[in-house]
Amino acid sequence: MNILMFRPKPSAETIGLQHLMVVEPLELEILSALKREHDTAMIIDLIIEKRSFISFVKEHQPDVICLTGYITNVSTILEYCRATKKISQKIVTIIGGVHCEVCPEDFDDPSVDYRAVRNAAQVFTPLLNHIEKGTELPAGVFQPADTLENTSLPALDFRIPFPDRDAVARYRHKYFYIFHKRVALIKTSFGCPYQCNFCFCRVITKGAYAQRPMNDIIQELQSINETEIYIVDDDFLVDKKWLKSFFTELRSRNIRKHYLVYGRADFIAKNPDIMHEFAQLGLRTVIVGFESFSDKELDAYNKNTSVEMYRETMAVLNREKIDVFATIIIPFYWDRGDFKNMVGVVKSLGIHFVNLQPLTPLPKTEVSFPPEQIIIDKTDYDKWDLAHVSVQPTKLSVAEFYEEILKSYSAILYSPSVLWKYLTTYSPGMLFKMLVGGCRVTQQYKQKINEARKNA
Ligand code: SF4
Fold it and tell me: How many CB atoms lie within 10 A of CB 374?
């Protein structure tokens, strides 16, 4: 069969990171690796392509199209499926990705034939057989009207093949992540053993945590041409023993790459020896969910960390010259003083890059609010981007809340010492790209401020 796999274009409404990062569509590369010998599959990255979705469908006349995405892509994906069915009812549409796994009901639409809800890597090939030869529909795939309530799902199975990276060969040089150019992705584990109550990642794996076999990880790593490696595990810094065996393999096989990983502040603070070893082996940047600089808030998020610990975390990272990208949650009850205090602590800790996320009750997480407090409609999917204000602020107006977020970004990202660091560390090309991306995000926030003022 002729299969087209699409990564959707983000909506113009969605604020954020797409201006500062575009990384390879790993999940589509995994599906591409699972096609059968007689299938042809092509991945089309609509974040990079200038052409429209429809033009590709008309040109290639596929038998099957596959689409994956996040909550912010739901409306676009449905639009694509409806447009596909208008071209030909015979083209089979398959939806997958993390949002489809957790909220398949959002894709229950006459234009969607199949939804991969559990173990996509195990069900994709049998699903192709089902479509072509009428074999049994694999468990874990929904047809229209199937729901989580009326359909039983198989147990979680985290095995994945090596991604078909050649399928995006023509795009690879364009993939980058905030100051890191030509970045490749690898996944070494699934889920996270912690229980932060706002976290969507742990809902995807139902709280389970599983590591891939070390031999597979190393073999895959060796097959990647890029030097910059973004390990997209929910939390890479979990298991000391496992990390030690990873380091041993890196050393014995003389693998020299640079790594960008997610890690918890408590692990970093408690394991300076591991962080030192990893820094020697190429760790360059850690994305750390600090979330808050108030112990009361950290407890409310069930984060299991403390503000005191964060000083040690930053001492370790600064000592090892490991960059940190910090995520911070902005709760709806903050006033101007709380924003000011946060900026002060961020600066005093030596954090130079932050992602400020208004507290967002993502579906099926443990964070929820009464409907009257929610100011974004559930079906305005493109606004559920962890950058829009979704809960009515109680001490500021919505416009003021956005203004404070924007002011905080400026105070942190454009302080003289941080600007000097950018200028002396990164290439002019990368600086220009980040400047353009930063300006676009600023424009989006200014638009939000204006909209909120008009609606007040
Ligand atoms: S440590 Fe990170 S990935 Fe794990 S539950 Fe908390 S926020 Fe989610």
Answer: 14
Instruction: Tell me which CATH code domain 2-142 carries.
Output: 3.40.50.280
Per residue in 261-274, pLDDT tens?
999 999 999 999 99
Would you give the DSSP letter of residue 221?
H
Closest residue by Cα to residue 250 from 272, 276, 227, 282:
282
Question: Which phi and psi (to 5°) does residue 177 adopt?
Answer: -140, 115
Question: Which residue type is seen at 243?
Answer: L
Taking CB atoms within 8 Å and a gap of at least 24, the contacts of 202-207 are 202/234, 203/102, 203/362, 203/364, 203/365, 204/98, 204/101, 204/102, 205/156, 205/158, 206/156
Domain ranges across the chain: 2-142, 165-455
End-to-end CA distance of the chain: 53
CA torsion sign for 427, 433, 434, 436 is: positive
How far away, in angstroms, is 191 Cα from ligand 1 center?
A: 8
Nearest CA to ligand 1 atom 3: 234
For residue 33, the model assigns a pLDDT of 98
State the distance from the centre of ligand 1 to the C-alpha of 205, rounded, in angstroms: 12
Q: What is the number of alpha carbons within 13 Å of residue 392 lying toward its C-beta?
A: 10
pTM of the model: 0.95
Give me the amino acid identity at 375. I
In angstroms, the CA 79 to CA 395 distance is 38
Q: For 205-263, what is each residue's pLDDT tens digit?
A: 999 999 999 999 999 999 999 999 999 999 999 999 999 999 999 999 999 999 999 99
User: Is 165-455 assigned to CATH 3.80.30.20?
Assistant: yes
Contacts of residue 97, Cβ cutoff 8 Å, sequence gap at least 6: 27, 67, 68, 69, 70, 73
Q: How far apart are CA 47 and CA 53, in angstroms?
A: 11
Q: Which residues line ligand 1 (CB under 6 A)?
A: 192, 194-196, 199, 201-202, 234-235, 264, 289
